[in-house]
Amino acid sequence: MSASRARGAASDPGHGGRRRAWVELLAGRVRRQQRGPEGEPKVGESAVRLLRRHLNLGDLVLEVDGPPRKQLCLNRLIDYDGPGAHTDLSSSLIGSALRDQAAQLGVPAAVLSSQVVASGLVQVCEADAGPPPKVLMTPDQRKKLSSLFEIAQNLLAQSMFSRLSFCQELWKVQNSLLLEAVWRLHVQNIVSLQELLESHADSQAVVAWLSRDLRLLCEQTEAPCQHADVARAMLSDFVQMLVLRGFQKNVDVRGTVEPEWMTQVAVAVLERMLASALEALAAGIQEGSAAHKAVSCWFSVFSGHMYRSIISTESPKRFFCHTLTQILTHKPVLKVSDAVQMQREWSFARTPPLLSGLYRRLFVILSPEELVDCLQEVLETREVNWQHVLSCVSTLVICLPDAQQLVNGWVSRLLAHAFESCDLDSMVLAFLVARQAALEGPAAFPSYAAWFQAAFGSARGFHSCSKKALVFLFKFLSDLVPFEAPRYLQVHVLHPPLVPSKYRALLTDYVALARTRLADLKVSIENMGLYEDLSSAGDVTEPHRQTSQDVEKAIMVFEHTGKIPAAVLEASIFRRSYYLSHFLPALLTPRVLPRVPDSRAVLIESLRRAEKIPPSLYSTYRQACSTVREKPEDAASRREVEPSCAEEPLGLLTTALRELRASVTDPPQHDALSAQMAVISEQLRSALGLSEDDSDVEGAQVQLSVRAPELQPWEQRVVDLLLTSFCQNLMAASSVAPPDRQGPWAAHFVRTLCRRRLLPALLSRLCQLLRHQGPSLSASHVVGLAALAVHLGESRSALPEVHVGPPTPARGLPVPELFDILLPCRTQESSALCLKFCTAAISYSLCKFSSQSHDILYSCLSPGLIKKFQFIVFRWFSEARDPPSWEDPASSPWRPLCLPSADWRRAALCLWKQRTSRELLQREGLRLTYRDWLQLELEIQPEVDSLSDTERRDFHQWAIHQHFLPAPSATGGCDGDLEVACTTLVDVLMDFCQSSRSYDHSENSDLVVGGCTGNRDIFSRLQEMAADLEQGPAPLGHAAPRGHFLFGVFCRRLQALARGWDVASRLQRQRELLMCKRILLGLPPSVLVGSPCLEQLAAPDCDDFFHLVNSELRNFSHDGALTHDITAHFFRGLLNACSRSRDPSLAADLTLTACQTQCPLLLTSALLWWPHLEPELHHRWRRCSQSPLPTELRRLQEAQHFAASVLSPLVAPPAPSPAWLCAAALHFVIRRAGKESIRQELGQLDSQGEELLVFLFFFSLMGLLSSHLTPQAIGSLKALDVCAEVLGCLQRKRISWLPLFQLTEADAGLGRTLLRLAPDHQVRLLPVAFYSLLSYFDKDALLQEDAFLHVAVNMYLKLVGLFVAGETGAVWTPAHGGERQAQAGAGPGLSPDGPGRPALGGLRPGQPLLAQRAAVGTLTAALPVFSPGRPRKPDNKCSSFSAAVDTSVPKKELRRRGRGNAQMLTLLSVFKSPSLFTVRVLNTFGKTSMRRPALGISSGPGCVFGGRGAARAQHTGFLAAAGRECGL
Distance between terminal CA atoms of the chain? Predict the structure, then answer.
């Protein structure tokens, strides 16, 4: 009985008296009653009879006390006897009562006890019954239930409790049961959940009841209450039981084998719960609603930690696989056509977060291979829900790093099966999966355009096996056309499958169908942008917007290449509609033209000159520009129009980035990073206005201007927001955990930034921040950008190369190497930023990838940055120059960097001394070598260096002599060899000065070598080391001394350069030689002339310098002489070397005598500069010897005096020998005199030897060619007059001059000497000089020269060879054009470029090599028709040479100008006695010209090249035939 009823029965309130308890009454009765030995059993029997008479079993089992003791109140009747006796007595009492009751009713005691406990349980559950329905109990209910379970456990222990009867009783009142009571029965081991569920006969009812209560449990679990832990524990136990029972091993849940009853119930409950959740999602539940909370709670049961107590993972795997199958097959109402049209809406970012979260939880247990296999099996055997299938594919490729390869393989297998058996289902599935994966961007899957080209764009495609496969492909594509998005149709049209020519009709039909569909959709292929991206399935960009992007892109490409972009040229021909109606109007938008033409103006002018802009359109544009008056405020408002419309997307992006920060700083949320990054990616597209344009960067080119990076204002706002978020996230995450425990958020973030449209803006902004605004960056900015650079390097394989403008190399650079360029070390500020950045980047890398191999640093960081870190540490911290003292390897500089005020000095030194970093810096490829140090030191600008001049010199001395010189060559040192150190320094110095980096300085820099400011101190070190080598010990023994190391360096570098007559090769070689000469001039003159041995009467060793002059410097000499500086330097070195000899005069004479045969150019150079050279030579000789000048120097002096006397009124003395030396001196004197005529002076040479006139004629020929090659030289007409007068003198004296045009190296004496006095390109142009003098030849004298016609034809053949080899350019300088017109009289110039066009394409004058290409064209254009006597006006009917080689001249014009072989016949007619040789040549000419009268080939040297194609080939054949006839 209950305690209250017992107390009421034992006491009577009376008239206001106190109610006494039953215990008190009995106690008083015991005190009053005298008990004897036989009275105690009687009393017990009486008490038992009394209790049996008034017993209520239902109240008995529910009798409880207060919170301190959970015992039956009946126990207090006997509690006085001892502390442990009550349990047995109470159990005995209840058991006795139940047995008596069962005996009276005739039922088993166990059945009765089960009924009694079940009744009590129901009463407890109904104690707080009321709406809304509940599944959890109140605290009071839990207390009552606890006492009831205690009795039940005692009954179980006495075998007086039937679990089956108990379960049956519960099912009778199942609607009154609370789920928590059922769970507690399971937990207290009274009745397990499995027993309870299996005891019900109706499985459907069990499924309905349990599903309903589980849904209520999910709702109440997410509701704010104090018993949420109990609810979660209940849900976990129920799910575990259902999974274990429903997905046991060897149980087929797909229905092929009849499962047992419990398995069926468990599977049905789980399926019903998932189905209700999916239906709620499909209905569009609102976040925060009860249904949303219930779905979220149920999806949480798929977390892996919920199944940790399950020993085997097979059951959870089968459950997850079954769940995925159910999701994919839930309500398959959509058709394939719906999927094709709507799949864009099912990307990861647009999938409900609850569903994508469920996918991610399933992916934790199932491996990627199992997922793909499950997907494939379901798609092959079931009807599917396409929305769920494709959203699952998107989640798969987003969240699993290996999914791309697996999905690619899956799609390939589908395509192979489709084409093998013409299976349409496999084909559809392959396209849908590939398109869906491509929607997720380049970090997840290749773009659709790339995939389609890879699959069908080559001969190895799946479709290329047979005609049947081709028909199947195009039938499939044609069936898709009505449902396709325009983007996919454009991809198919512009990148069609590769089809054999015999099946081309299939492709043509499909393309026509696709174009018709695009026309219906009002999307034109012709009006597509030049740079429009076809990689995504987004909406087609609006035409005006795409056109503006095309214009900006074209201007950017033009800025970096200097050429009209190929895409623009192609559009002007093949897409003329778009080019004329969209691109040109956008490019020619009227504006106020800048005073200095900008890139847009230069591009417009280039297009106009290329005739790519209609004249009327250009005229309208210029007129509009002249009248437009744009107000600044209008421009500003117009620039703000675009950003204002996107403020909302930018706000959404800001919110998404803020949510990412919460995930970054909360480690349990790391698994949601992929989903959050997908949301950021979606918002990023909207913020940039790119719609779905999220294509990959593979194959893209990033153009970046380092000197002046530009961004649109809106792009800069978005990029700044992203960079700020990254830096803040990094600092927040680093305050919680080191980089190696921060999860993959940073890598995911960077992959999101690596998109085709965003990456250029990102890199441009990084260029602005690091290269131009570096000193203003805070510590957190530097740390964040350094970490960003590390992760960009981690993704380098997926990033395109970056093409940057000067001063960087022209080649494309990987992204990590870009940071090497953005962080120079020239000034104190730039070095400080570079040190901070390198310290942060290396520290972050070492911490982030501490558990991985150091090889990853090769990809994450540029070796240049690691070397710059070592370079600056050596320069700035003297303690770093001492041998390293290893620190604790656990110490890391990363923590100090994350503090608000980072101590960079301490962080850098900490990193330097750390054992891990020191091991890294000693690895090959990352170690700072001597060459690396020189390259970096050359960039330093001393005027803004952090070191003073003294400190810098001390540092140089330490670095060279203490650090790198003694270091072994294997570690980047010099092995103690000072000559190796000097050689490396010269190499690096020349490389640096040749590179564009040396010109990236101010124009007023104090230059020493090559145009760079930082090299003067390094060059001083070279001078010091070269002096040390000069003063070093002589080689032991009688070994021949080696040449100076400098000439070995020069020879090796020059041999490595390409040899050729093209302008680029010669410019490169001339630039290299200029550097060689400057280095020689900066070193002591003794470098050129080796010192003679004191023991021997030998000449100084000049062989190396002679070889350099003959092989290289000669080809860049001017008019037979070197420049003054190198000439004077040689003679200084010669006199210095002779002064150390025992006989200075003999040493000088031996050297200069050797010069006459080995290097005559030095002597002619001395003659040219003799007025400046003579005083210094006299002074130096007097200092080293009291004797008169050496004989050979006096010989030069005498030649100079002879030349001066020829031009004086006095009679010239006899010419000293050798004759060629006097001729050179006379030539230079004549050139300096600048007289109009020298006929009178030449008359004094009648008494001189014949050789003198021949040599003078040779030098005059060289002067004539030089006048054409160098604009600053003497005029070509004046040089021609000098040549003509010398030639006339030779002809009057009957001196043979033709051998000058037949010189070869095999000639003894004459030929070899003269060829070493002239550059090779001038010798090659001797045929031009020959035909320039054609009209001055004396025909009577030529009749006696049997070799003349042989020489004439030989010169003609060589002239043709020059043209055929492409070495004759059509260039006409303004000066020469004026002279030519003055000679020819009135009439237009003969240059195809017209008068006023600068020489050589606008290149600066003073470069003889540049004019070689023009010489033949210019001179041949000036050739008159042959006639004895003075020159005549040119025949206007003969096409000029320069016009002939201009490919823009029409063939009909060339034919009109040609006149056959009249000129050559005129030439031959002057010979009164033609020889058999002449007749053969004449016959050859006549036969050839008669057979080909329509070729328009003119016979003159200036006209013979007028034809193109067949004409040129026929004339070349004639020349070959003529040569054979002549024996040439």
Answer: 142
Is residue 692 predicted with pLDDT exceeding 70?
no
CB contact burial 225-248 (16+ within 10 A = b; e otherwise): eebeebbbebbbbbbbbbbbbbbb
Residue 277: name the closest of 290, 262, 264, 266 by CA.
290
Please say whether the beta carbons of 393 and 407 come within 8 A. Answer: yes
What lies within 8 Å, CB to CB, of 728 at 6+ separation is 661, 780, 784
Question: Contact 177/125 with Cβ under 8 angstroms?
Answer: yes
Contacts by 1299-1306, CB closer than 8 A, 24 or more apart = 1299/1254, 1300/1254, 1300/1257, 1300/1258, 1300/1261, 1300/1326, 1301/1326, 1301/1327, 1301/1330, 1301/1351, 1301/1354, 1301/1355, 1302/1351, 1302/1354
Q: What is the DSSP letter of 1392?
A: T
Specify whether the CB–CB gap between 1054 and 1072 falls below 8 A. yes
Rounded to whole angstroms, the Cα distance separating 857 from 838 reads 13
Residue 232: CB partners within 8 Å, gap ≥ 6? 221
* Rounded distance between C-alpha atoms, residue 1511 and residue 1520, angstroms: 14
β-partners of residue 802 are 702, 813
**Count of positions (residues) in the chain:** 1528
- How far is Cα 1443 from Cα 1506, in angstroms, rounded to an integer? 8
Query: Which residue from 868, 882, 989, 902 is spatially nearest to 938, judged by alpha carbons?
Result: 989
Question: Which residue has better confidence, 1352 or 21?
Answer: 1352
Q: Please state the rounded mean pLDDT for residues 1434-1446.
A: 32
**pLDDT of 718-737, one tens digit each?**
899 999 999 988 888 888 88
For residues 479 and 427, is the Cβ–Cβ distance under 8 A?
Answer: no
Residue 269 and residue 273: Cα distance in Å, rounded? 6
Tell me the CA distances in angstroms from 308 to 192, 271, 363, one per residue in order: 20, 22, 16
Q: Determine contact, residues 675/603, Cβ cutoff 8 Å.
A: no
Q: Cα(190)–Cα(213) distance, rounded to whole angstroms?
A: 21
CA angle 397, 403, 404 (to 5 degrees): 80
Cis peptide bond upstream of 615, omega within 30: no
Question: Is the pTM here over 0.70, yes or no?
Answer: no
Q: How many CB atoms lie within 10 A of CB 381?
A: 11
What single DSSP character describes residue 585?
A: H
Which amino acid would we find at residue 298? W
pLDDT tops 80 at residue 1433: no
For the segment 1147-1188, what is each residue's pLDDT rounded down to a tens digit? 889 999 999 888 999 999 999 999 999 999 988 888 878 888
The CA distance from 562 to 546, in Å, is 23
What pLDDT does 1124 receive? 92
pLDDT over 70 (residue 333): yes
**Residue scoring higher pLDDT (1197 or 1519):** 1197
Q: Quick one: the chain helix, strand, coil %, rounded to 5?
A: 65, 0, 35
Higher pLDDT, 258 or 24: 24
Whole-angstrom distance, CA of residue 1271 vs CA of residue 1411: 9
Torsion angle (degrees, nearest 10) of CA 744, 745, 747, 751: 130
Q: Residue 1352 carries which side chain, given as an amino acid letter?
A: A
Tell me the pLDDT tens digit for each residue of 437-449: 988 877 788 888 8
Q: What is the dihedral of CA 1212, 1213, 1214, 1215, to 10 degrees?
A: -70
Per-residue pLDDT, averaged over 1295-1299, amounts to: 85
- Residues 6+ positions from 1351 with CB-CB distance below 8 Å: 1298, 1301, 1302, 1330
The Cβ of residue 609 has, within 10 Å, a number of other Cβ atoms equal to 10
275-308, pLDDT tens digit by residue?
999 999 888 888 878 888 888 888 888 876 666 6
Strands 702-704, 802-804: pairing is parallel
